[in-house]
Design goal:
Length: 409
């Protein structure tokens, strides 16, 4: 079987692994990005993000000439769009990157091509993609419920777990929503080249809502655990033990509390639902508010610990972890990073940070110092913010300990 030529637009945490896996199964892949550093790094056979196994795969497929990156779109049989979809200050979705990607590829689209939006998107985004492409290419017949189309347009959300992306890209089931059933069928033929999970077809709006629903489900359940942690603290109960015991009920499965919810999926996607149905999405909005308030609660705990020590000396506070979840380098929208920035800005203490996944501290932490685990023995207060595996195996340090992850510190 001749493998198609594919173009992956947006070579970040989702796009680059997808491009590499497609190239690895024998497709010719052209990766498109607007970031020169990303393009140059990939073309050298290297990667600009951290994801286990990805460096070897990219080195191999680039070395064998099956993947290359460019900032200029080229003709291909299918285009997979994996650009950012953040929300604006008013928490409405920002589709400007998707629009930029559509306008960039529109010029090279040919009859028979397939365009698949993979970015997490609000309901209706794939129809918007159709409109943008249609405006740029009035010569192409767009897919409609009746009549022949020149191109296919579909939505297929990504649901991989950072840190296990190369495995989950292949094994997870995929929900594929077409503008028409024929579009969904065409998109499925692309995923069939590398997905071992089931590819389930639906319409574009349901597929868009499906991705948002998955993350809102997680957010609501984490909010329940976070709320329990506040209630337990108030009532002098160990929340970790409480949840462990409650989960012995055969039909109860409570998630774990933490310092907040981060990353640009779970903390972001529920707002897309709230923005499109504000009157109806009451619980989803409240869950977001509960989770967004958790870092303030952790900060109050740290402040109280600083007050205790400050009577005798200027406290040294060690913060463990900045990433938004364990064993990755992704600091985007991380509650741990937000907490660290506010502790460091306070100037009431010396701040040491242990984050094994970064070589230097991000902005906003000028008053803090990146150290290794051994250097925190002189700290008075130890705040565990991320349950990286390396922390799990380490001996809990002496001093005041604030364990936001239930690691037994
Ligand atoms: N990271 C995850 O774990 C994850 C999981 C599921 C879904 N998603 C969704 O996937 C999408 C991409 O997320 P990501 O984490 O890969 O983002 P990312 O920021 O890591 O990568 C996006 C890339 O797109 C590039 N880009 C922006 N505009 C472009 C344009 N017009 N043309 C070409 N390239 C452009 C950026 O330079 C960047 O390299 C988002 O919608 C996100 O919500 C992410």
């Amino acid at each position: 079987m001749t493998r198609p030529t594919l173009s992956v637009v947006g070579l970040g945490y989702i796009g680059l692994p997808t491009a590499a896996v497609l190239a690895d199964v024998g497709c010719r892949v052209i990766g498109i990005d607007i970031d020169r550093h990303a393009i140059d790094t990939i073309n050298e056979g290297k990667i600009h993000i951290v994801e286990p196994g990805l460096d070897e795969m990219v080195a191999r497929v680039v070395g064998e000439g099956r993947l290359r990156a460019s900032d200029v779109p080229e003709p291909a049989d299918a285009f997979l769009i994996a650009v950012p979809t953040p929300f604006r200050d008013d928490r409405t979705p920002d589709l400007s990157y998707v629009r930029g990607a559509c306008e960039a590829i529109a010029g090279v689209l040919r009859k028979g091509d397939t365009v698949i939006l993979e970015s997490t998107s609000p309901v209706g985004a794939t129809e918007q993609v159709l409109r943008w492409i249609s405006e740029a290419r009035p010569d192409l017949a767009m897919p409609r419920s009746d009549g022949e189309a020149d191109i296919a347009i579909a939505y297929c959300p990504e649901r991989v777990l950072p840190g296990n992306v190369l495995v989950e890209l292949v094994r997870n089931d995929r929900v594929i929503g077409g503008i028409t059933p024929a579009c969904a069928q065409k998109a499925r033929s692309i995923y069939a080249t590398f997905v071992e999970g089931e590819c389930i077809l639906t319409d574009a709006r349901t597929a868009e809502m499906c991705k948002l629903t998955e993350n809102a489900f997680r957010d609501v359940n984490i909010a329940f655990a976070n709320e329990l942690s506040l209630i337990s603290d108030r009532l002098d109960i160990n929340v970790w033990e409480l949840i462990r015991l409650a989960n012995r009920h055969p039909r109860v499965n409570i998630l774990q509390p933490g310092p907040g919810v981060g990353g640009h999926c779970i903390a972001c996607d529920p707002w897309f639902i709230v923005a499109s149905a504000p009157e109806q999405a009451r619980m989803i909005r409240t869950a977001r508010e509960v989770n967004d308030a958790k870092p303030d609660w952790v900060l109050r705990k740290i402040d109280a610990a600083i007050d205790m020590v400050a009577n005798e000396k200027r406290p040294v506070v060690a913060l463990y972890g900045l990433a938004f979840k364990p064993d990755i380098d992704d600091l985007r929208d991380s509650p741990a990073l937000a907490i660290a920035r506010r502790v460091a800005a306070g100037a009431r203490c010396e701040v040491l940070i242990v984050e094994p996944y970064v070589d230097e501290l991000p902005t906003g932490l000028a008053n803090a110092r990146l150290v290794n685990f051994q250097e925190t023995t002189r700290a008075d207060i130890h705040v565990l913010l991320v349950d990286h595996s390396v922390f799990k195996t380490a001996q809990p340090p002496d001093g005041v300990r604030i364990d936001t992850r239930g690691m037994g510190w």
